[in-house]
Design a protein that fits this description.
Length: 451
């Protein structure tokens, strides 16, 4: 039995259902990793976070929370099935319809930003808010709407826990020049089309590796990595008129950032608009702090009622899917990764330090530090079984380069350590492309992938 407007898909697995959405309403669905929701737009118009759905096409959602909004009304057909790659006895999901959404506010925000673009004042937008307030959803909506008007906004991800055109741990930036992938369960930015063996990434992402789960674990290094990313973004804007005229949209960590980190990001990315989501106190504090800054506008927008808090297991599952998709692809585009066996001596690996470890007396045994390591934030590791299951970032540098140079280097890609055998002193490493393991330095952080 279900309450009106709120139902569970467990009772009707495999059955087809129809739903009529009234104009200005939103259908919200929570799909666990054990279920697959298939949705088809039969009539009318509808969108998922700003990206329009095609009439007659089937969209499949696995392990994600999504929302389908209609401005003028539509008819949907949906069914749920057991996800074939997961062994379980049931496939459940919850869904309900709401006519109370802030989409009109978000659309008006887009129109205001578009006015700035038309006035040759491309905005640099920073989206802030508490955890699970819908910051990423707003960034998707703003990017999608901008793309509909022929813009190529630069989307910047400063959340190390979320892999956008990257495995988790990386801070990334890429211009959005085409429609977003609404079916992508790892973020919705279209990563399913661009991961793996692509010699030239269609979106030319720029990635720098932070490696830790939250900015608070090493706030100084987080600000350094974000600053390096900002330099790359400004260089791309200078070289690409289309992207420069479209502006920047910056998504921020779910755990928030310190005041100094916010100030650093505003300065580095030359932010002109700060959007605060669902937090009156944060809006008031920022409005007071920057009231004398005439070229910075602080706005507040409401939080969507469809935002759902994710527990740690759900976050881990999303991160694991992101790392798996990087090497194996998705249902729409499967990939065949390549494995190599190398000697321990063939790899040079560093680890990102947490602030609590910057004192050399706190370093674990086997890690080598020099007198300058507290300023460098990376420490060299002795290759051992500790690397097993690590996803390592490969830097655009040489193994012989100094740490000072490594912390300035961008990410070329990722590899996964399948096996680390201390007895044989061998590593089995998975790569997204065939060939020899590149002679590059690697960096690890908090992220592991267990098959």
């Amino acid at each position: 039995m279900s309450l009106p407007g709120l139902s569970s898909g467990a009772e009707s697995e495999g059955q087809t259902h129809l739903i009529d959405l009234a104009a200005g309403s939103e259908w919200r669905v929570e799909v666990p990793a054990t279920s697959q929701l298939n949705v088809t737009l039969l009539d009318g118009t509808a969108e998922v976070f700003g990206t329009e759905l095609a009439v007659g096409a089937q969209y499949s959602f696995v392990g994600q929370n999504t929302a389908i909004y209609t401005w003028y009304g539509c008819k949907l057909q949906y069914s749920s099935t057991l996800h074939s790659s997961i062994s379980t006895s049931s496939a459940t999901f919850s869904e309900y319809t709401s006519d109370e959404t802030p989409m009109t506010v978000y659309a008006n925000l887009h129109f205001a930003l578009e006015t700035l673009r038309n006035e040759s004042k491309p905005p640099s937008v920073l989206v802030l808010g508490p955890p699970y307030s819908g910051k990423t959803s707003i960034c998707k909506i703003l990017a999608s709407y901008a793309n509909k008007t022929g813009r190529f906004p630069m989307v910047v991800n400063l959340d190390p826990a979320m892999g956008v055109y990257s495995c988790p741990g990386g801070l990334s930036a890429a211009p959005v020049s085409d429609i977003l992938d609404v079916e992508d369960s790892t973020g919705g930015w279209g990563s399913s089309q661009v991961n793996g063996p692509a010699l030239l990434h269609p979106k030319s992402p720029l990635v720098y590796y932070y490696g830790l789960e939250t900015p608070q674990k090493n706030s100084k290094y987080f600000k350094h990595v974000a600053s390096r990313l900002a330099l790359g973004v400004q260089a791309r804007l200078s070289a690409d008129k289309k992207v420069r005229e479209s502006g920047i949209i910056i998504d921020t960590p779910g755990t928030g950032m310190s005041d100094s980190a916010v100030s650093s990001v505003i300065a580095d990315f030359k932010v002109t608009v700060v959007v605060v989501v669902g937090n009156e106190r944060l809006y008031s504090d920022l409005a007071k702090r920057y009231k004398e800054k005439t070229n910075l506008t602080v706005l507040k927008v409401p939080k969507s009622g469809g935002c759902v808090d994710l527990d740690p297991p759900a976050v881990r599952a999303t991160q694991s899917r992101s790392m798996r998709d990087y090497f194996y692809g998705t249902i729409k585009q499967t990939l065949d990764p390549y494995s190599v066996t190398v000697d321990y001596s063939a790899v040079t690996v560093y680890r990102v330090l947490e602030e609590s470890e910057l004192d050399s007396s706190a370093l674990p045994a086997g890690e080598q530090a020099d007198s300058q390591h507290s300023a460098q934030h990376l420490v060299k590791l002795e290759t051992s079984a500790i690397l097993q299951n690590c996803v390592m970032a490969m830097l655009n540098a040489s193994p012989a380069d100094s740490v000072d140079l490594l912390v300035q280097s961008e990410v070329l890609g990722y590899v996964h350590v399948i096996t680390a055998d201390d007895d044989r002193r061998k590593l089995v490493i998975r790569m997204p492309v065939p060939g020899r393991l590149p002679q590059r330095p690697f960096v690890i952080g908090d992220y592991r992938y267990h098959e």
